[in-house]
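Hello forum,

I keep getting stuck at the same step: I have a sequence, I want structure tokens, and every attempt I make locally crashes halfway through. Rather than fight my setup again tonight, could one of you with a working pipeline run this one for me? It's a single chain of 506 residues.
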Amino acid sequence: MRYVIYARKSGESEERQILSIEAQLAELQEYSAKEKLEIVASFQEAQTAKEPGRTKFAEMLSFLQEGYADGILSWHPDRLARNSVDGGQIVYLLDTGKIKDLKFPTFWFENTPQGKFMLNIAFGQSKYYVDNLSENIRRGHRAKLRRGVYPGSAPIGYLNNHRTRDIDIDPERAQIIGKGFELYATGKYTLKQIARAFKNMGLRSQKGNVLAVSCVQRMLSKSFYYGLFKFKGETYQGTHEPLITKKLFDECQEVMKFRGHIKTRKAEKTFPFRGLLTCGECKCAITAETQKGHNYYRCTKKREMCSQKYVREELLTEQVKNFLQKVSLSSQDAEKILRELDKDEQKAKLDNHVVLQNLKTEITDIGVKLDKLLSAYLDEIVSAEEYAAQKEKLLARKVECGEEIREIENGSVSWLEPARAFVKSLNHATELVQSGDKSEMTTFLKQIGSNHILFDKCISFSPKIPYKLAAERSEAGNSHLQNPYWRRVWDALGTFFAQVPNQFLV
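Reply #2:
Ran it on my machine without issues. Output:
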């Protein structure tokens, strides 16, 4: 009688105690020699048998059905099948005579009704083992999720603590990843540049590989780093220590969204205002070209006939400088305002007690809402999709409240930071006028406003409210800090920053 050898080893954890394929082959060859079995072929594969679809297993059955062999030699029945489909195939081929015998060093089998009955029991036990193990794993996952622990491999920057079953910060990588988020949030670096920076700083994957750009993009999009994580489509609040704040994470997402609509061109270095302006007559993009040693900007006229003419770059530069001068602030004046802001911060700290109480009350309310939401989901009042979406929204707000509480408790006031950034940006406008850096001027204009139009050789755009107020102050001839008009402007700015503390200014 001719036999084929079949050896299988799954790479999954539930079979890590099973002999390796090499060890199985050695045992089976020794057994075949002792029993004087004729071996005509050997099939090996490293794949789980929980589900049907194994390639080598199918090849072996085809080999047997074509009559090239009569029986199978394997270590144990669970090497052949751990699911009802594959087990049923083996028994059916025994019934039809395509397989005449099975040999196992660790299991007795005889091709009789009693033997096939015992074989079915062995296959059933193998399937029960897999099913029970899967349920145990799911139960372990549910327990971890209830504790706020991600039930999988920790992302880069964290380590799985196998002793406590928690996730700890990786002291060697965490600081590098936090720096990567900070760099990307500035909007001055591409994903490729961040990946190169990670490489230069020695950051590698868990397997020691250099991080690809796609890997960096996934990392910068992972909410795990500020305290939330998703598992099977549902959002959970983790108990692990965040590497970054949600505010920093949101800034990175805005940059990523903005960059996703931009195609970088090498020519932008030559024509600093290209990509900034659109035609005020036909709404087409403004392009640029060089003629007789000068840069000229014109409408692309791709949609319809347009009467707009060429504009020299020098004229546009002067217009931009004129606006920058309206919103500029000297270093001396900037320092005075920053000192006033410090005084405002001290006063605001006295009023923070009520705010803290409100935030803590909101967190408590969110907890109640989460409980009610879960009850509604269990009672089938809301769908699984609605439950997941509402839960994610509530948890995100809970994290924001926690960050606001920590920010206040650490002695800062949310609106003062953008106000300080605004004052520094006014001083930066002064520096741009002096340096004449056109590329930096373009970046500045994009950040402080929108809808940049070129019409009749004149630039116009919609500045953000703080810059609009500052420009009006200058046009009214009230540039001195002690002027009552400037005081009213600053009071209006304070109200604006208090209402939109997370407004990105510069």
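The chain has 17 helices and 14 strands. If your local run keeps crashing, start a new thread with the error log.
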